[in-house]
Amino acid sequence: SDRPDPGIDRALDAAERAVDSRVGPIADVGEQASFPVPYYVARVADTTPFSDERAAEFGGGVAAGWDAAFMKALGEGLERYAAGVYREEAFTRAAAANVPNPVSPDAFVRPEDAAEYARDDRLPWAIGEHLSTGETASLPAEFVHFPPPENRYRPAITTGLGLGNTGPEAALSGLYEVIERDATMTSWYST
C-alpha cells in the first residue's frame, strides 16, 4: 500500500459499515467540495422511530486528504447519532438536592445572558461518571445530549462529543475537542 498508515484502511473499513440507507446510523455520505480541500457530509439516519428526539441531520468532515475527510464526516455523523438517541424517561427530573453528585449548570461556562440557575430548579439529569473517582455524577441532560431535551441554561453545542473504539478513547476524543476549542477561543479573543 502507498499509504503511510495501514490502520487508515482498517478504520475506514470498520466505519463504512455504519453507512446503509435502510438500517445504518449513517444513511449516506457525499462529497460537497474538492477545492481547496476535500469536504464530505454524512447524512444521519432518522432516529425518531426509537428516540424522543431527531438526531442532528448532518455531520461534516474536511481534511487535506480524501480518506481523512471522509472518515471525519463519518465520525461527526456517528457522534451526532449517538448524542441524539435517548428517551426522556431515562432522565431523572428533579432538583439538584435529589440526585447523586450533581454538577450544576453553573459549573459550566455559559453566556452572560443565560438563564439564572437555582438549586431548586427541576431539570432532567443524565448519569455520568467522575473520571478520577469512578463515582456516579449527575449532569444536566441538556449539556450531554444534542439536540438537548430542553434548552434552558445555554445554547446547544456539540463541543465535547467524542467517538472512539473504546469508552476511554471516546472520552479522550471529547476532551481533546474541548481543549482544542478552548485554546482556539482563548487565542482568538486575546489578539
Notes on the structure:
By secondary structure, the chain is of the alpha+beta class. The protein has two domains: 85 residues, no CATH class; 57 residues, no CATH class. The protein is 29% helix and 18% strand. The strands form two sheets. It has a three-stranded antiparallel β-sheet with strand order 1-2-3. A three-stranded antiparallel β-sheet has the order 4-5-6. Strand 5 and strand 6 form a beta hairpin. Helix 1 packs across helix 2. The longest helix has 24 residues. The radius of gyration is 18 Å and the shape is globular.
Write the layout of secondary structure elements.
Elements: H1 7-16, E1 26-33, E2 39-44, E3 58-62, H2 66-83, E4 92-94, E5 123-129, E6 136-140, H3 141-144, H4 167-190
Antiparallel strand pairs: 1-2, 2-3, 4-5, 5-6
Helix pairs in contact: 1-2
Give a quick precis of the structure.
With 191 residues, the chain is of the alpha+beta class. The protein is built from four helices and six strands, in the order H-E-E-E-H-E-E-E-H-H.
Mean pLDDT comes to 92
Overall number of domains: 2
SSE order, one letter for each helix or strand: HEEEHEEEHH
Number of continuous helical runs: 4
Largest sheet: 3 strands, antiparallel
Number of strands: 6
Structural class determined from secondary elements:
alpha+beta
Through-space gap between termini? 44 Å
Side-by-side strand order of the widest sheet: 1-2-3
Helix content percent band: 25-40%
Unreliable residue stretches: none
C-alpha Rg, in Å? 18 Å
Our estimate of the beta-strand percent is 15-25%
Form type: globular
